[in-house]
Write a structure and sequence with these properties.
- The protein is α+β, with helices and mostly antiparallel strands.
- It contains three helices and twelve strands, in the order ββββββαααββββββ.
- A two-stranded antiparallel ribbon has the order 1-12.
- The two termini are 15 Å apart.
- Pfam families: DUF6470.
- This is YviE.
């Protein structure tokens, strides 16, 4: 025996969701930067070096001197020669006054005065050591520097933002369905 049956077949409804994501874009432009550096002010003051060379003593040693100095030296030598000559003649006169004491003052004086004094040989035009005098005053340099500060101008730029909102779309993908069927029913 077959029993009557009710068959039910159901199908659930299905919802479909379609999402579009939001889009955001942020762009940050670089800041505008202007830097100006003025040149430093430099002042340089120089006192020149001074070199003083005195070679008058070296010229005198080589017998190359000014006429005034030469006249002065010859005058000194003349005065010295006169003093020596006067002293020699006074001494010889004293010897001659004492001729009665014996000896031969005339012969001795003739021998002394009969020969010229020997002259020394050698180089006479080389100046004495350290005859040239040097005096050096070094240069002086004064440097003044005035620093100028840089000027910096910065202009920030605002960010550029674009935004596209997202969307959510819902729809019915599949409708609900209920089917009922009967089997083994007698009529």
């Amino acid at each position: 025996m077959q029993l009557p049956q009710i068959r039910m077949q159901s199908q659930h409804a299905e919802i479909q969701i379609h999402t579009t994501n939001a889009k955001q874009r942020i762009e940050q432009p670089k800041a505008d930067l202007v830097i100006h550096q003025p040149q430093a002010q430099i002042s340089i003051q120089t006192t020149p070096a001074m070199l003083d060379i005195d070679q008058s003593k070296a010229w005198e040693d080589m017998n190359l001197m000014s006429i005034l100095k030469r006249n002065e030296r010859h005058a000194e030598e003349g005065m010295r020669a006169i003093a020596q000559g006067t002293a020699r003649r006074a001494s010889e006169g004293t010897e001659l006054m004492k001729i009665e004491n014996g000896g031969s003052p005339l012969i001795n004086q003739a021998i002394r005065n009969g020969h010229d004094q020997s002259k020394s040989l050698g180089i006479k035009f080389i100046p004495s050591p350290f005859a040239v005098k040097f005096n050096y005053q070094p240069a002086e340099v004064h440097i003044d520097v005035e620093i100028n500060q840089p000027t910096i101008e910065a202009t920030p730029n605002k960010p550029i933002m674009t935004y596209q909102p997202g969307k959510v779309e819902t729809s019915l993908k599949q409708r609900e369905d209920l089917q009922i069927s009967f089997t083994n029913l007698e009529q």
